[in-house]
Automatic annotation (TrEMBL):
Keywords: NAD, Oxidoreductase. It comes from Paenibacillus cisolokensis. This is 3-hydroxyisobutyrate dehydrogenase. The gene is ghr. Pfam families: NAD_binding_11, NAD_binding_2. Belongs to the HIBADH-related family. InterPro entries: 3-OH-isobutyrate_DH-rel_CS (IPR002204), 6-PGluconate_DH-like_C_sf (IPR008927), 6PGD_dom2 (IPR013328), 6PGDH_NADP-bd (IPR006115), HIBADH-like_NADP-bd (IPR029154), HIBADH-related (IPR015815), NAD(P)-bd_dom_sf (IPR036291).
Length: 300
């Protein structure tokens, strides 16, 4: 039985770890807020006191952490993943981080005799729960293929993107599209609502026509119900758009649509919407237009 160390038990990490347990892996978990591990312990996981302890006996380590600073805290230092990882182990980081940090962690892991992969995911909370995530991976392909069954225990597809850092680049480019599509959906709904169009009929039209998208399918029902429970938070999307903006600057790629979406998400963050689902950006448009977006054109 392969032993997995799983670090980071938030919206995505907890269901991912649960799927590993269901597939028969031995899993040791660590989370900064220790109580978040309790349900996984009830499912059969063991709780570690530090990231190093979670990594020490693991054949593979998986991390799912919110941002670059938190990743550095988890990996570095005497209690970090790199201090505990054993020679021959593999590390999959499924966080969304900068390509620069991914490359640095890959180099640090090599000095420990371990293989590091930047392996972010797409699919958000429903796919994490269903085990249908898609992984985009940077690192050594031959080593990846030997161990990709671990990722397929949590997902439906593993896409190899290239050398270390390539998974992170792909994820930032991907999430730039997600952020733009979400803003486009909400903005279109704001136009329709302000023009007296029934919101449910408009969402059905979007899903049936050329404006259809994965975001329309995922967020349309949430917008109609004003259900802003988190599948993927507005705050994390803003973080990703900022990373994507920085990456595009370094690559000298003009990104006017990315910058517009980032600005809209920043307004949502300023309104205190950061901990809600990114579809909660609708509240910004409701403030600007003076109308409920799901109200068929009626005033708030």
């Amino acid at each position: 039985m392969q032993h997995i160390g799983f670090i980071g038990l938030g919206t995505m990490g907890a269901p991912m770890a649960a799927n590993l347990l269901r597939k028969g892996y031995a899993v040791t978990v660590w989370n900064r807020t220790a109580a978040k591990a309790d349900e996984l312990v009830r499912l059969g996981a063991r709780k570690a006191a530090t990231p190093a302890e979670a990594a020490r006996a693991a054949d593979a380590v998986i991390t799912m952490i919110s941002n670059d600073a938190a990743i550095a805290e988890v990996y570095d230092g005497d209690n970090g993943v790199l201090a505990g990882v054993r020679e021959g182990a593999v590390i999959f980081d499924s966080s969304t981080i900068s390509p620069e940090l991914a490359r640095r962690l890959a180099a640090d892991a090599r000095t420990r005799g371990a293989a590091f992969f930047d392996a972010p995911v797409t699919g958000s909370k429903p796919a994490a729960e269903d085990g249908t995530l898609v992984f985009m991976v940077g690192g050594d392909e031959a080593t990846l293929r030997k161990h990709e069954s671990i990722l397929l225990a949590m997902g439906r597809k593993v896409l190899y993107m290239g050398e270390s850092g390539s998974g992170a680049v792909a994820k930032l480019a991907h999430n730039a599209i997600v952020g733009i599509n979400t803003v486009a959906l909400v903005e279109g709904l704001a136009i329709a609502a302000s023009g007296g169009i029934n919101a449910a009929q408009f969402i059905e039209l979007v899903q049936s026509g050329g404006a259809g998208s994965k975001m329309a399918d995922l967020k349309g029902p949430k917008l109609l119900a004003e259900d802003y429970s988190v599948q993927f938070s507005l705050g994390l999307m803003l973080k990703d758009l900022r990373l994507a903006s920085s990456l595009s600057d370094s690559l000298n790629v003009p990104t006017p649509m990315l910058e517009a979406a980032k600005s809209v998400m920043q307004t949502g963050q300023a309104l205190g919407l950061g901990d809600l689902d990114l579809s909660a950006i609708a509240k910004s448009y409701e403030q600007w237009t003076g109308r409920k977006l799901n109200g068929g054109g009626g005033d708030k």
